[in-house]
Amino acid sequence: MKLCNATLPDLPAAIARPTYDRAALTPGIVHIGLGNFHRAHQSWYLHRLMQEGGAQDWAILGAGVRAYDAAMRDRLLAQDCLTTLIELDPSGRSAEVVGSMIGYIPIAEGNGPLIAQMADPAIRIVALTVTEGGYYIDPATKGFDAAHPDIVHDAANPATPRTAFGAMVAALRLRRDAGAGPFTGLSCDNIQGNGAVLRQTVVSLARLSDPELADWIVETCTFPNSMVDCIVPATGPKELALAQEMGVEDNCPVTHENFRHWVIEDDFCAGRPDWDRAGAIFSDRVHDFEVMKIRILNGGHQVIADVGEVLGIETISGCMEDARVRALFNKVEREEILPHVQPVPGYTPDDYVTLIDRRFSNPAIVDTTRRVAFDGSSRHPGFVLPSVRDGLAKGTPVSGLAFVSAAWARYCTGLREDGSGVEPNDPFWADLVPVAEAAKARPAAWLEMRQIYGDLADRPAFADPFAKWLRLMHEDGMVASLDAYLNG
């Protein structure tokens, strides 16, 4: 059954579907970055509210700012912006169609349609999932990267910006001038303090072209921090076939695990949906939730993904089926990451590691090691190195975390142990490969990428085990290296 509004009543009975009148929905949110994660997470929470008869004026309009976003727009519009979510669990699977998104803004050079839509007073939240590396952060200073060519362009051409943030600034200028009031900027990316990072990017960009507008944004707009959590694999032929097998022809279905978590600061300048009625948590302890999730889950992904890629293990659950890799995960997590994580309501750090072990081990979730290993140049400094710095400050072990960095350096040589090549898997892959090659003979070359590692090349407690592990990986292989670490 081809998915669209007209066929919803005819879908197989086992597939849940919207019970609300989608034609009666009106938009309240623009979401930039319509990837799988958003459609399985934030969109689902809103859908759940709508199923209860609420949030009818908070429907989502999708948006993108790059030419390649047009393909996703076409696919979603062809099925009335409906998405089939397929929950995969070892005990079984289920499906539901989510209808909280009602349109997708046209993609155009200069982002005119997006700016006009965000300037509409009906839009009260602009949310984003643009990846950890998408916020124009200077890797050396961790501040705003005003020298990036995209930012230079937007500062010089504020009415026809290239970036999502330039579009937000342009829309806020129109709203201020029209007396339409501000909107809330809601980052849903895996960045600690993601709301503060979004505020920094938007305000700093505005200040380059209109300092008075920047002041107005600071005074009136809000940017709540949030923590998001759900494992959502990429969609490929297998997922398309699974949807067909369940009785629906969906051109962009989404598979996901049987777990969701969303913790948000309650700081919305223009109102918000009652997401807590659908299971989200409004809390003033978002930072603690963020640290637990980013260090243990996202950091844990990096602990095993590069090792798995070097060994030719294709999935995260496959990594956890390997006794050595699973032991690496648990040893590094419990000895070197947990000491720096505080308990939060509902979880101790030890409980959370046990939960993540189980979630990573779910064989029904076909989450590739390649996807998880992507963009190590953003993910290692964001997810792994904060634990290293805490360990050095507190005198706790960091040898396992050094092993993780060594595995990344080994991976970036572009060759697995079975001789197969690694296709480029980082925005800076061309820069990383020659450094990884140089590090074979001189491991310190890798840590001297100070835009990533800062002063860690000068910290023997980390640099010495890093050099030991990287040499061992190149000389004796990954399995021998794992045995040496696990038995050491």
Question: What key phrases describe this protein's structure?
Answer:
N-(1-d-carboxylethyl)-l-norvaline Dehydrogenase, domain 2; 488 residues; Mannitol 2-dehydrogenase; five-stranded parallel beta sheet; globular; oxidoreductase; single chain; 21 helices; alpha/beta; Rossmann fold; 48% helix; four-stranded mixed beta sheet
Polypeptide structure, described:
It holds the Pfam family Mannitol_dh_C. Residues 286-468 form the Mannitol dehydrogenase C-terminal domain. Keywords: Oxidoreductase. InterPro entries: 6-PGluconate_DH-like_C_sf, 6PGD_dom2, Mannitol_DH, Mannitol_DH/Oxidoreductase, Mannitol_DH_C, Mannitol_DH_N, NAD(P)-bd_dom_sf. One of its GO terms (molecular function) is oxidoreductase activity, acting on the CH-OH group of donors, NAD or NADP as acceptor. With 488 residues, the protein is of the alpha/beta class. The chain has two domains: 5-284, Rossmann fold; 287-487, N-(1-d-carboxylethyl)-l-norvaline Dehydrogenase, domain 2 (Orthogonal Bundle), CATH 1.10.1040.10. The protein has helices at residues 36-40, 42-51, 69-77, 112-119, 149-156, 164-178, 194-209, 211-220, 237-245, 286-311, 316-321, 323-337, 349-360, 369-373, 376-394, 399-411, 429-441, 444-447, 450-453, 460-476, 478-487, and strands spanning 15-16, 27-32, 59-63, 83-89, 92-98, 101-104, 125-128, 184-187, 226-229, 254-256, 261-264, 281-282. Strands 6-3-2-7-8 form a five-stranded parallel β-sheet, with helices on both faces. A four-stranded mixed β-sheet has the order 1-5-4-10. A three-stranded mixed β-sheet has the order 9-11-12, covered by helices on one side. α6 crosses α7, α7 packs antiparallel against α8 and α20 crosses α21. The radius of gyration is 23 Å and the shape is globular. The relative contact order is 0.10. The mean pLDDT is 96.
